[in-house]
């Protein structure tokens, strides 16, 4: 089912608060990716600083703020881009980040004006969730220290996020869940959103042949794949997941070879054809693609169908409800923007109004000439 409640810029701004996972991602990406220049009014320095690039009703946004979110959101993409493409998209990414930071500042200032507060209990609960998401045995303090992240900064970000959520709850308090008749009307008027494409859930083991041209080595790789296929299809054969972890050349080996659920058009043609035609639960013959030889195991196959109203009405009602709240928050954001004072320190002052030309002097003076 297509979700009609697509998150708007306002809702995205809510999630901008960088808790530990986001900050760690930014730190990790920064170590590997080319550093984007900070979005500053003057030529960027070699490294970002705490220099203020914008103020929103007096709230500063610094080069470091921009850099952190740039790396958290786009670090992996920046790492993989060739220099010529990076130059084309970097400024656009920076502008997106700046826009989100402005939105967050507007929301946070409004939340503070309303007097919203985050309790210590709420902050501790969120910190506990972050700690629980870390690798087994890792301590939050040590993990943060290794990434160069200050725990007080994390707590501050959590506090800001909680206050903004409280603001959103107040702004959207008057919105009611849609009645079933309204939900049914949407369902009837948007039939394409409730069509489920045919899909398969599958795993694979890849024997890579990329860059290999030696026929003997290619033949040996195929033979190894065929032998493993035979072993996997035995009643008492090895576990597919274990063999994927041990032998696959695809990063999916970390998940036991699982590729999850996918529909047509998401995989290369040879792989797709095999996945949609071979028997469920069996490991098919090696399939050759540009990446190498694949052993594919189809776990589940779903036929295309139209989702009945009874099956989707609860989720659809929730989506429509969230969409209405998103629209209300977006409208509220526009009101905040309209009255906000957004300044760029160091920007040249606007030129003064030109003085009236002498030719525009009173008529009687011109008559004396």
The first-level CATH class name of the largest domain: Mainly Alpha
What is the assigned CATH homologous superfamily of the largest domain? Porin chaperone SurA, peptide-binding domain
Mean pLDDT across every amino acid position: 82
What is the general shape?
extended
Strand content: 5-15%
Defining key terms:
369 residues, extended, alpha+beta, single chain, 52% helix, Triger factor/SurA peptide-binding fold, Chitinase A, domain 3
Task: Describe it.
With 369 residues, the chain is of the alpha+beta class. The protein folds into two domains: 243 residues, Orthogonal Bundle (Triger factor/SurA peptide-binding fold); 106 residues, Roll (Chitinase A, domain 3). Helix content is 52%, strand content 12%. It has 13 helices and nine strands. The strands form three sheets. It has a four-stranded antiparallel sheet, with helices on both faces. Strands 2-1-9 form a three-stranded antiparallel sheet. It has a two-stranded antiparallel sheet with strand order 3-8. A hairpin with a 2-residue loop joins β1 and β2. α2 packs across α3, α3 runs antiparallel to α4 and α4 crosses α7. The radius of gyration is 29 Å and the shape is extended. 27% of the residues are buried. The C terminus is likely disordered.
């Amino acid at each position: 089912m297509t979700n009609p409640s697509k998150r708007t810029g306002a809702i995205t701004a809510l999630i901008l608060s960088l808790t530990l996972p986001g900050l760690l991602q930014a730190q990790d990406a920064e170590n590997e990716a080319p550093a984007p220049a900070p979005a500053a009014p003057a030529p960027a320095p070699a490294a970002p600083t705490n220099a203020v690039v914008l103020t929103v009703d007096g709230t500063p946004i610094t080069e470091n703020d921009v850099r952190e979110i740039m790396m958290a959101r786009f670090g992996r993409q920046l790492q993989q881009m060739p220099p010529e493409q990076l130059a084309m998209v970097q400024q656009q990414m920076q502008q997106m980040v700046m826009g989100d930071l402005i939105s967050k500042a507007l929301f946070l200032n409004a939340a503070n004006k309303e007097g919203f507060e985050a309790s210590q209990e709420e902050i501790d609960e969120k910190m506990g969730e972050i700690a629980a998401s870390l690798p087994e045995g890792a301590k939050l303090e040590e993990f943060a220290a290794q990434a160069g992240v200050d725990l007080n900064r994390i707590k501050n970000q959590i506090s800001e996020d909680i206050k903004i959520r409280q603001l959103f709850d107040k702004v959207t308090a008057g919105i009611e869940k849609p009645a079933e008749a309204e939900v049914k009307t949407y369902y009837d008027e948007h039939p394409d959103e409730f069509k489920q494409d045919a899909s398969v859930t599958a795993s694979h083991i890849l024997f890579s042949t990329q860059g290999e041209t030696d026929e003997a080595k290619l033949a040996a790789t195929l033979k190894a794949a065929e032998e493993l296929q035979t072993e996997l299809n035995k009643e008492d054969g090895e576990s597919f997941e274990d063999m994927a972890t041990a032998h696959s050349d695809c990063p999916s080996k970390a998940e036991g070879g699982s590729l999850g659920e996918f529909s047509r058009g998401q995989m290369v043609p040879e792989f797709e054809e095999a996945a949609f035609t071979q028997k469920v639960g069996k490991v098919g013959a090696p399939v050759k693609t540009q990446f190498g030889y694949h052993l594919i195991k189809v776990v589940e196959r779903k036929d295309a169908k139209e989702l009945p109203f009874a099956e989707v009405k609860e989720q659809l009602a929730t989506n429509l409800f969230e969409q209405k709240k998103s629209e209300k928050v977006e409208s509220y954001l526009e009101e905040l923007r309209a009255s906000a004072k957004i300044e760029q320190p160091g920007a040249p002052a606007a030129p003064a109004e030109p003085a009236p030309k002498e030719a525009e002097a009173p008529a009687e003076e011109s008559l004396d000439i």
